[in-house]
Amino acid sequence: MNIYVIGLAIYPPAERIMNERLEEMVYTTTRAALDDAGVTRGELDNVVLAASDEFDGRSISSMLMAMPAGAYLTDEIKVTDAGAMGLCLAAARIASGDFHLGVVASWCKSSKTDVEGLMRLKGEPFFTRPLGLNCAVTDALFGRAVVERWGIGPEEINDRVLAAYQRAAGNPRGVRHRVPSPAEVADSDYVSAPLRQGHRAPMTDGAVSLVLASEEWVDAHPEREPLARLSGVGWATDGYQLGRERLGGMHSARIAWDMALKRAGLGSASEVEVVEIESQTGFHEAAYVRAFELEGHPGLSPSGGPFAQNPYFCSGLVNMAEAVLQVSGRAGPVQVQGARRGVGHGCHGFAQQANIVAVFESVEA
């Protein structure tokens, strides 16, 4: 069964959004996505929420967030892993044949959350939690494994960070961070060696919503032009223990990538024009480029990825929205000319434990 994206919206990101509550952000974003699709809330038959109670700072946050996301008197379900997993669940629901028009909505106010403190609580309580494992420490362990596995020098990491900032500077949907100087990146303080503060994508606040429709629904509404077809999706979760092979092997990333491309009928990255990667650090980009065989790919994260905006929980779903904008020719100043196929990628868990990859095609393709 073909699944289509018929509308989307990305909330204007900021380092700290103070003028709207989460409910208002989600309502504004989902309403804009529905308007983009040319449908009303009453036409929806399902809504998928992708959110974290911990990041929201609320128990059972869907009680407050479901209605702003369009789920009033509509079937609603929630996934708590990451925003990108919401797309997987939304696509699976439509592929079941039981649903035909739905919204997937995700959000995160990173500025209101002690992200490192929250991540420490996700550690195994008797051993790793007392050690103080968090994003910084586990990303540093990941970075060390990547450097040793592929012989990557610090110059490459610094150059990748600078290039990401430069791409992000042209993205009107980004925060437009100032592009740092090479020295500001290379000489920034260590967070946890070899990871420096300058290597990390700054966290922001934001939200994103996509409207998905079945082939049956699209055929019945020829006046609604789809933006893109979801031609393949894959996801995988690696082991929890942070050994050398787990950190450097990139197993879940490779499985998700191969699964998505196979389902899309593609053989390699050379067959897609755009690949939007969730690179939370320069080490992430260096690793994913090698795992996905993207060396020299001209369409690597033209949006700037998390260096453009990084609402931490839903950054992967933002990447997927950016991929849809590329293949529909609506990416604006960062548009890759002739983009007919685009990949959106997301990761979550300690040291990219889990990965999600989605392939989108232009309707003409």
Question: What does the model show?
Answer:
The protein is α/β, with parallel strands linked by helices. It has a domain at 3-113 and 204-220: 3-Layer(aba) Sandwich (Peroxisomal Thiolase, Chain A, domain 1), CATH 3.40.47.10. The chain is built from 14 helices and eleven strands. It has helices at 22-37, 53-56, 62-65, 83-95, 115-121, 128-131, 135-150, 154-169, 182-186, 215-220, 244-248, 251-263, 282-291, 315-327; strands at residues 3-10, 46-50, 76-79, 101-109, 190-192, 195-196, 205-214, 228-237, 274-276, 341-348, 354-361. The strands form two sheets. It has a nine-stranded mixed sheet with strand order 3-2-4-7-1-8-11-10-9. Helix 4 (83-95) packs across helix 14 (315-327) and helix 8 crosses helix 13 (282-291). The longest helix is centred in the N-terminal third of the chain and has 16 residues, at 22-37. The model has no long low-confidence stretch (mean pLDDT 96).
What are its keywords?
alpha/beta, 365 residues, 14 helices, Peroxisomal Thiolase, Chain A, domain 1, 19% strand, 9-stranded mixed sheet, 11 strands, two-stranded antiparallel ribbon
What's the short version?
The chain has about 375 residues and is an alpha/beta fold.
CATH third-tier fold name of the domain at 3-113 and 204-220: Peroxisomal Thiolase, Chain A, domain 1
CATH class value of the domain at 3-113 and 204-220 = Alpha Beta
Basic shape: globular
Order of helices and strands: EHEHHEHEHHHHHEEEHEHHEHHEE
Largest sheet properties: 9 strands, mixed
Unreliable residue stretches: none
Mean pLDDT: 96
Spatial arrangement of strands, main beta sheet: 3-2-4-7-1-8-11-10-9
Number of strands: 11
Radius of gyration: 19 Å
Number of helices: 14
User: Based on helices, strands and strand pairing, what is the structural class?
Assistant: alpha/beta
The CATH architecture of the domain at 3-113 and 204-220 is 3-Layer(aba) Sandwich
Distance between the termini: 16 Å
| Helical percentage | 25-40%
CATH superfamily of the domain at 3-113 and 204-220: Thiolase/Chalcone synthase
Beta-strand proportion: 15-25%
